[in-house]
Amino acid sequence: MKTATIVGAGLVGSLWAVYLSKAGYQVKIFERRPDIRKAEISAGKSINLALSTRGWKALDAVGVGDEIRKIAIPMTGRIMHDLEGNLTYQPYGKEGQAIYSVSRGGINAKMMDIAEEYGNAKIFYNEKCVDVDLENGIVYLENTENGEKSAVQSDLVFAADGAFSAVRYNAMQKLDRFNYSQNYIEDGYREILLPANTDGSYKLDKNALHIWPRGRFMLIALANEDGSFTCTLFMPFEGENSFETLTSKEAVDRFFKKTFPDFYDMMPDIADAWEDHPLSSLAIVRCYPWTHGKTALMGDAAHATVPFYGQGMNCGFEDCTVMWELMQQHGDDWDQIFREYQRLRKPDGDGVQDLSLHNYHVMRDYVADPKFLLQKKIEAHFSEKYPDKWMPLYSQVTFSHIRYSEAFKKGQEQDAIMKKVMAQFDDIESRWNSEAVENAILAELK
Ligand SMILES: Cc1cc2nc3c(=O)[nH]c(=O)nc-3n(C[C@H](O)[C@H](O)[C@H](O)COP(=O)(O)OP(=O)(O)OC[C@H]3O[C@@H](n4cnc5c(N)ncnc54)[C@H](O)[C@@H]3O)c2cc1C
Fold this sequence. Notes:
CATH topology of the largest domain: FAD/NAD(P)-binding domain
Bound molecules: flavin-adenine dinucleotide
CATH class of the largest domain: Alpha Beta
CATH architecture of the largest domain: 3-Layer(bba) Sandwich
Oligomer: single chain
CATH superfamily of the largest domain: FAD/NAD(P)-binding domain
Number of strands: 19
Strand order of the largest sheet: 6-5-14-15-16-13-17
Shape: globular
Number of domains: 3
Distance between the termini: 55 Å
Largest sheet: 7 strands, mixed
């Protein structure tokens, strides 16, 4: 039987283990942390993620989707909270389309169960990868509890050990002509758990992603299954309205009371919970090649991105789809599979990063700009009327399987068209849904 080693039993590693087991490989997964299924994880200690169409496809292909559906909460749109507590609802897509809130710990634990149920996958915990012989498929490990060192050889090695991948850092980066860049953005994030009401009910509509946009910073909230919400405050590390100004309980209390009054009403003890979760940073990591010898990088290890499009996990799951499709085409010819995988997938790794950065700037700088909002309104109207001619960028990324690289390119073209058309009308505010505007867009599309 062919053997494979996966480094990291995170979201991508545990899903990829299911694929490989199904394909008849004997799989060993080495995970640095203890078994999260046995560890005491209180709700909210684990952040939740938005799962969308690409992720579902990868889960459904190996029959995992239905298990995850049981713990997924649909979010059909975003609800914006302004300073006065007024709410504005924006659907994400067409009727029936939704993204899904899933708990990172929950989905990870379910996939670990499924990977092990297939019989050919075994997860070893507290085993930290310290090095890899890329060409010979040897993974060097150190037990985090007793310091014992070991080495495991297999036919294939998959590095799914996340944004700060040890495989990439300790082995790939030592290769000649390996390209690598790591860029932190100015913002960090801190999570906050908004508890359920005493009767277990939700304090906000659970079927929406809640956003409190405040220009240079924002708070978001996604529902958990137990009635609570995991909220995340994204904000610069430094400057006015930054994490460096929120260093005392009084400052945190004052800030939330003034900036997120309706949130503060639901959680007046926010300052007490402030230190429960650490302040974390956000980076984009680009590298190439993604494969060498018997080893391939997958998920964040290959293309870590910032979370502003909610696509990091979805993209990692799509890596599994692509690798799987290549296995169908090339059988056991892994040289060919790895060559094709990185050739095909690298532009989309770059694509998802470009899209995420683009959305970071949109959310930061444009979301409150009336011109930008008008542009989105015209686009939505036009796309509803001519769905075969115009799919909004958000839908291309979230509700389709169009390659990320193509979606990014198409999005830029659409943006240029809209800007050109809007500039043709002095009275665009009053004529945004007129036939003349429609015809001008149609003319640009020809
Ligand atoms: C704030 C935030 C919000 C996000 N929201 C979304 C979202 O809404 N939707 C979305 O699609 N994505 C989202 N993402 C991105 C998503 O979390 C990642 O893309 C996803 O977790 C990547 O999965 P992975 O398996 O590649 O890496 P990880 O989930 O990081 O898993 C890596 C695993 O490897 C293990 N490991 C690390 N080093 C070693 C080692 N040396 N030896 C052995 N094991 C090791 C780790 O313990 C971990 O279990 C978000 C990210 C952040 C930070």
